[in-house]
Amino acid sequence: MSASDLDRALHATVLKREAVKEAEYRAARQKHEEEVRLGFGATDMTKEELKKLIDSDRRMYYRSEELNDKLFIQYKGWKELKNLEGWTGLRALYGECNAFDRISGLSSCRNLRSLFLQENCIKKIEGLEGCPLLWNLNLNNNFIERIEGLSHLRSLNTLTIQRNKIGFSGVDDLVHLVETTISTLDVQDNKIWDPDVLPEVFVRMGDLRVLYLKGNPYLDDRPVFPEDRRAAEAFNRGGLEEERAERRRIKEEENAQHERNMKAFQDMVDNVRREKRERDSMRDEDKYTNASDPVISQERRMQQQVEKWKQEHAEEIKDDAKVHAERCLRSESGDERTAKKAEPEQRYEGEKFCSEKEEDGASNDKRRLVYEDIWDA
Description:
Keywords: Cell projection, Cilium, Leucine-rich repeat, Repeat. It is found in: Cell projection, Cilium. Among the domains are: 33 residues; 33 residues, no CATH class. The chain starts with a helix and ends with a helix. It contains nine helices and nine strands. The strands form two sheets. The protein has a seven-stranded parallel beta sheet, with no helix packed on it. Strands 8-9 form a two-stranded antiparallel ribbon.
């Protein structure tokens, strides 16, 4: 074999080896990209994906679908809720933060008690006919405009449906609630503006016990005081006339309470004055004074403790700046007296020095004390 043939054979072998390496690299890259797409919801809710979910956590799930009573499929990015035919024992489904645009695939889940589908793209309440035992339903952060499709759920206790688009059409968007058995209703941050929802819907819900309405145009976010509640109940009893009469009664009760408070305060003042007179009278007949009384009162004990603390911490509470200012003032005053020995004696009054002549009627010395700002410190 010539040298050229040998070179060509060697070159072909190298190309073949490089081709194998390239194929392995492409396969690894494709696998990695599939895993990344799975994380971003590039897959569908297929039986294979559900099986992968079961195999990923053997402590959470049984291998047989029908034996599992919980299913966690949050943050998958799945667009359709399906392939749950074998999950007949399911009691709780956690499917928040996906891309479901409708409720479906639950016809076999007849034992389902809790369904969490918040933060999806659901536009309508439907597909719950196969869940007669449903007790808790969470549909927060969706695009639902009307409450419906719940009348057949005779075990439904809690409906949480915050931050949707319910209420644009007034009472019609919520009137279906009257036919339900809901005890706890949370419709915060919706578009409920019609005040008729109170008498037409919420009052007629026989099982309603807890209601959350904050964040709707219907409310002004003001606290409801007991007086407001009494006035509202009076209006329901007898209309505007009954409300006015109730407000008059409330005003009379407030005035009576104010008078009782004023009388109680005056009685307290009179009692204190009487006790002081009695104490002073007893002290006049006592041989001891307040300072020599062997029985120390609470006020004297506290005062003694304060004085003792001041003595023990004299160095800590000493005002160094004031001491320095006083020392400087004494030093300067001493120099001036030395320089003016012949002048009459002066004394300090207020903000100026006065001599003996000034007391005899001489003209006042208008000079100001130089260190008056130091005294203020």
